[in-house]
Amino acid sequence: MLVAVSATGAFAQSAGAWLDRPMQGWNTAGGAMPSSRSLPVASSATLDRCKVTAPAPTPNQGSTSAVPILSRAGWRPYLHQDRALVRQGLEILGGLTDMTQACEPVHFNLFVFVDGRFAGTLAPAPMTTARDGAVGAVRIVNETALTAEFARYAANDSECCPSSRVKVTYRIDRGEAPVVTPVSSQMLR
Hints:
This protein has 189 residues and is mostly beta strands. Helix content is 7%, strand content 38%. The strands form three sheets. Strands 3, 4, 5, 6, 7 and 8 form a six-stranded antiparallel β-sheet that branches. A four-stranded antiparallel β-sheet has the order 9-10-11-12, with no helix packed on it. Strands 1-2 form a two-stranded antiparallel ribbon.
């Protein structure tokens, strides 16, 4: 079993255990935006030091309607891997509540919006950078599909180098109440 290394170096139950099971959806059509209110929150000084600012509108891709929605739910919007993920009416935006001393997201998730409406998250629970189950590369395949890669750490892995990665493929239903659903996973290495 793959496990996460905690900040103290001890081993904890895997936050990525959901990746070991057959894919089951956690998002529901018309579901509410998850609140971050119960998670630890970074100080304003940390967020200022780390230069966490809400993403600006992307030229030729329209303004983002996701920023105020995430903010109202208590998340601090940010660009995952420092890039806008906006295409064909889809927007994927990170939301975090805390940061490490190295300015890496803690207690974060990636939120999917379809034509400005919340469709769900890419993971069933908040993640932490450099821990088991943390999301990496995300790709919008087309208007109804996307993929995301998740780190898988074994007990002896250092924070820099997970033993493997799992690619999850998602289907995007673009109806009146859009929803993003994981449909398959594939071990990459």
